[in-house]
Fold these 2 entries.
Entry 1:
Amino acid sequence: MIELYLLMAFIIIAAIIAAENHTLLSSVISLGAVGLGLCIMFLLLGAPELAITQLVVEILVLIVLVRATIGISVPETYKGREFLSYMMSIIFIVIFLAGSYLSFISLPGFGHPIMRAAKIYIEKGAGLSGQTNLVNAILLNFRRLDLIGMLALVFTAVAGTLVILRSKGRK
Amino acid sequence: MNGMSLIVKTVTRVTVGVIFLFGCYLAAQGHATLGGGFAGGVVIALAFILYVLAYGRTIAEERLSKQLALILMELGAVFFLMLSFFGCKPNGNSESILCNLAIMVTLGAGLFVVFLTLVAFRVKVREEK
């Protein structure tokens, strides 16, 4: 369990570096470190299918972001911050941490009782679907509506990109 | 975009077919082992993106143009919807293979179209007079 906490600390540090960096390319590469750390976490938790998907999508996003941000420099808009804004952000962080601790302390342990919906899939999924791979059976048979929503998402992404980033505008 | 150097072009010419085949393998074996339609489609899109980055846009569009990719994406999505509504009974691997292949075609073509549009896009700063 200790390696998960180490990876989580690595992800948080990489995210802070990505947020606080002033160069766009360095921020994009730090975001890639966040995604790859998440991929290793999935692998350690015993979900290799999710790890494969996360790795592939992360590489695609990294290529697109590097291609989009290379050669673009953002001018600095703020030099010195106010004392009040620092204090306000620290107070908000403390409130957020306390609230999340109070809400997570009452949850059951990590993966301890298998949830009711998942238990039905695990017990009867192989018999009902008749498939070899249980993950694929759940995705393609019980959760087919999610996949249709995913394809609608891809359609919306393509249509939005074609409309917003068209090279010639209509006269 | 004129593409990259000769070394990159040669390595790309050798490896792009293997990457494409690996994407097809991930999608076609998704019902039995690891993988699935999503990962296979993204790997196929990555193979075409590698071709665009190495050879430039004009040569890459001779292989798979933007219009053909759009038509492929729509056909894949419609095929998946047809399978969902009028498909065979959900017992067995045969429908799963077809669904994975439909998702693979849709995602590969769709992400390739997104990347082609992003490559063509240039930020032009308007000159103020």
Entry 2:
Amino acid sequence: MILAVLVSALGTTACVDSAVRTAPFRVRPDAPDPGSLAGPFTGRVVDATTHAPVAGALVYAAWTLERGSALPEPAGAREFVGSTDAGGTYRIPALASVPRGVRVTEFTLLVYKRGFVAYRSDRRFHDLGLRMDFAQRENQVLLERWRSELSHARHLRFVGSGTAVAALTQWELGDASAELDGKRPGEDLRPGRGEGQYIVAAQLISEADIKARTRYDGAFETGPLSDEPDTATYSSQHFKALGRPETWDVAIRLWRLEPGKAQERYEELLTQLPGIAEKDDIASRSFAATEGDIRGIGFLDAPRGMVVLLTCGTNQCASIEDAAALAGTAYQRIKTLIPAPGVTK
Amino acid sequence: MKRLSAVVVIAALALSAAPAAAWEPETTHAGLAEQAALASRLHKRLVSLGFSGGLFEPMTIPPADAPTLTAAVKLLSPTHGSVPDARGRQVALAWLAAGAALADIPSSHGANHFFDPATQRGWTAPSRGVLKSLSDAVREAVGRASLPDRGMPAPDWVVAKTNPFSLDAFQSQYVKAVIAKTPGERSRHMAAALVAAGAILHTLGDLGAPSRVRSDEAAHLDPLGAGPDDLGSRFERIAALAHGRLGVPAPSRTITRERLRDFFSSKDGGGLADVIARSYFSVNTLPAPSRIGGSDRPALARPQPALPARLNLMAASRDDGTTLRDSNGICLARYKVEHGVLEFAIDDDCMLEQIAEILPDVAAYETGLLDFLLRGELTIDIGDQVVVSGKGLGPGTVEILAEDERGVRTSLANVSTTSDQLATVATPATGTRIVAVYRGTDTAGEPIVAVGAMPLAR
């Protein structure tokens, strides 16, 4: 079927000889009709664990072009590079013109953010099977958090190539090579997973919690911190203030360990962090720390084997009490989510 | 079964407006090359030669150094994993996949990816008789396409001087990837060698499609949906839809052969073209229609696959007919009796079954071929002297080089040789590593490059 005219969102008219194959995806998640390879495409990207919007994720799309009959050959691609906004939404304009005699054979969307497993519109990561739930409009992208046991070699194949993607995925190369050498880059931290309820840092405080305490009226980009990936025993959540310096940022790290190990981790923090003052007013033990423009509150929940470190820039947390209040909120959330040992919820 | 059904739904959705036939370059071929690389010795070989990241070692071909290749690579879609960044940089695995995708550019090269073991011929443009049976629209599209009359048989194409990605091109770049002076130059040559290797894998892999090994060029004239000129192989299009690049299965095993040509076709019938041609029908080489009740059995285009002694004509008389399966239960064709005539066909579900069976075997042949290209290994013993030796090598030349702390390599010796102990030189006073490369023929008379590397202990 020839699409006589491809209407471009940019206002240009496509070459009338252009042809587009039938899209293998729906126009909307709840509609049976096929979508259009030409677009436009819209959707929203959320954290699969918390369902919070993921802002600042790379939105990379490519249309595959082909020419020739019977012995066809690749004829280039058209790319779109963008990112999700504060609400996690994306919008990809319709394909503009393509050269005469060239046809559009595929459209592929990639969403990538460090700390998460990438999303492709055509394949799932976990089994590389066909993705059946991609839709042209109102698409929902659930980004799974990266876990240490996942394969970077597989992930690099999954995300594909090109300048925009390569720049963001370079950090995975070393781990991918190590895997092929039979070495795992880090210890597999899965023990403990599945025992009891599994929680992550993003569940402990929300944007609303922060804004209610600090009266901040801007927007945050949220996601894991980039220093180390989430594992079965560690997770993090970064609230990056959009368009502001890091003194407006908030971050929370959570370690979920055996009780003895949690005690050790807490002691390590006491020795590692500057400006420590032990307070012991949250959970089993707690401290306040300050370094330059960053305030920190750490606490140990010994019965549950939890250690939490909340950091907050001085523009966001005008006083150490603001940080302590947010840490207190996180502790309340832990108590709600995970009953103390011996207590049936 | 549920998954298969899902695939069928997708395939049907994408093809419903019009149909699809051999492997698509950016999806199936790139995926096959990646799977072959992951299962082969390539990663270890790269590491041993100083490309420490192996398959994930970034390698750069500066666009200014290879404008033709750069222009061709830009014709690929980045989401398929083989387009370098603006500086011409991507990992080794991606360069191999790029070669697998580039083998069809220009499209005239695609005509060299056919080989019928029965006739020993490659692509032959569909005859007037065949064209007559097609719709007007398809005939006109074929006319516009100006298809070549003939193609070079695939086993000849991989060693042809006119092929930019020939065996000789691969070996020349592979040698330079060892002997070039600087790490940057070696990286560039290794990337180029991988591109050539990928294209060679593509040429072999194409022979996994039945139409390409049973002289069924007409199977590549199916309308695929995007206008009258969108003609190709429905079989290959379905493979791309069902498996893409990422879903191409891993090799079922590794096929080993003594000679390059034997991977394609051999007297023992163990080449990929031989196996596929005798195991599967293609859409236009199915058993001919025959009238029930007569003594004639359906005529076969090729002796194999043979029909069973008795067809189930009772089942074939039902509305939906029945299925002809091979000894492994794989669908070979559907057959049905209508108005007293027995007819055979291959539908999309049947193609899907065949593709799922064929792809792991194609990957197995490609893995074996990649290992074959990299089979040459040298042993380097370092004492007062550096002694380079190799097994199974015939006449050739060997070059020994020393690498310094900066990664710069300097030639120590370059000699012609005929024995297993290829060359001996005095151990250099400085340096971090000794490398050696041999180019000549193996004991089977096949061109070979053998390499070796050994750290210089101080």
